[in-house]
Amino acid sequence: MEQRDIIKDQIEQLGRVLGKLIANFFALKAEGNVDLAIETTNQQLKSELDLDTAVLANFNAQELEEYVKSKKLTDRHLDKLASYFFEIGNANESEDRVKWFVAAKELLNLADSHSDTLTFGRINLKNRIEDEL
Questions:
Q1: CA–CA separation, 12 and 22 (whole Å)
Q2: Residues 93, 62: Cα–Cα separation, whole Å
Q3: Angle 34-37-41 (CA atoms, 0-180°, nearest 5)?
C-alpha cells in the first residue's frame, strides 16, 4: 500500500512539473521569442523530467505507447505534451512541422486509450491538428 502511495505521489509531482514547464513556455511565447521558448522548454523537460521531445516526436505509435507506460504518463500528461507539440508545429516553418503535428495526434490517441473520459479540449485539439495536416 505504501509503495502505491509513493508511485501516486511521483505521478502527481510529474504532472505539476510538466504543467509548470508548459505554462512557462506559453509565458515565454507571449513575450515574442518562440524559438527561445521552445529551446528553453525542451531543455527543462529533458533535465527535470527526462523527456526528450525530439526523441518522442520520432517514435512510431508502438514505441510511443511503450515509452508512455515506462514513464507512467497519464492522460493529463499526454494532453499537455500534445498541446506543446502542436505549438511547436505551429511555430515551425520547415517540413518538420508535420512531424510535430503527427506526434501530437499520437499523444492524443494514447490519451484517449488511457482515459475513461473524452474531453472537449482533446477533440478540439485533434480537429485543429487535422486542419493543419
A1: 15
A2: 28
A3: 145
Cell, residue 38: 521552445
Local confidence band at 118 (pLDDT 50, 70, 90 cut-offs): confident
- Predicted pLDDT of residue 102: 92
Look at residue 57 and tell me whether its pLDDT is greater than 80. yes
Q: Show the cell assigned to 85.
A: 507539440
- pLDDT band for 7, please (50, 70, 90 cuts): low
Task: Specify whether the backbone of 50 is left (phi greater than 0), alpha (psi in -120 to 50) or beta.
Answer: left
**Alpha carbon 58 to its chain's center:** 13
Q: Which of 124, 130, 109, 10 is nearest to 59 (CA)?
A: 109
Separation between Cα atoms, residue 53 and residue 22, nearest integer Å: 13
